[in-house]
């Protein structure tokens, strides 16, 4: 099965930037759609961003204009460039991937990484 490994998290002060990376390896699962979830302590998980292999993009409203999702040239990785970070962006961020259908208008992010901590604090 495909395995996802995140990197690039850490501690940053408000207004700063971080870039998260997710590398996919193995086989057995499609990665037509790749994206990022996050979960803060005591809060429900939320979908942050998704990019499909036909360039359909989704962003959580609260990160629009600040975060940018991209795929690498080989389409085996996904990245999240985070700018103008706020304390409320603090969470564990999870890479996720899965197949899509209906010209990638429908996707199922059924493979998850282990998660990586992003802390925004001064």
Please describe what this structure looks like.
- The chain has 122 residues and is an all-beta fold.
- It is 0% helix and 52% strand.
- It has strands at residues 3-7, 10-12, 18-25, 33-39, 46-52, 57-59, 67-71, 77-82, 91-98, 100-101, 106-107, 111-112, 116-120.
- The strands form three sheets. Strands 2, 4, 5, 6, 9, 12 and 13 form a seven-stranded mixed β-sheet that branches. It has a four-stranded antiparallel β-sheet with strand order 1-3-8-7, with no helix packed on it. It has a two-stranded antiparallel sheet with strand order 10-11.
- A hairpin with a 4-residue loop joins strand 5 and strand 6.
- The mean pLDDT is 95.
Summarize this structure as a short list of keywords or feature phrases:
122 residues; mainly beta; seven-stranded mixed beta sheet; 13 strands; 0% helix; 52% strand
Count the beta strands: 13
How many helices? The count is 0
Q: How much of the polypeptide forms β-strand, as a percent range? A: over 45%
Determine the fraction of residues in helical runs and give it as a percent range.
Answer: under 10%
**Rg on CA atoms, Å:** 14 Å
* Mean pLDDT across all amino acids: 95
Unreliable residue runs? none
Q: How do the helices and strands follow one another from N- to C-terminus?
A: EEEEEEEEEEEEE
The outline comes out as globular
> How many strands, what sense, and barrel or not for the largest sheet?
7 strands, mixed
Structural class: mainly beta
């Amino acid at each position: 099965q495909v395995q996802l490994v995140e990197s690039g998290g850490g501690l940053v002060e408000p207004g700063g930037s971080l870039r998260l990376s997710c590398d996919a390896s193995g086989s057995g699962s499609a990665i037509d759609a790749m994206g990022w979830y996050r979960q803060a302590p005591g809060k429900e998980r939320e979908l942050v961003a998704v990019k499909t292999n036909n360039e359909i993009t989704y962003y959580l409203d609260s990160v629009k204009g600040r975060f940018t999702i991209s795929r690498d040239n080989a389409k085996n990785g996904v990245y999240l460039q985070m700018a103008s970070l706020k304390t409320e962006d603090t969470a564990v961020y999870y890479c996720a991937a899965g197949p899509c259908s209906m010209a990638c208008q429908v996707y199922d992010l059924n493979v998850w990484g282990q998660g990586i901590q992003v802390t925004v604090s001064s």
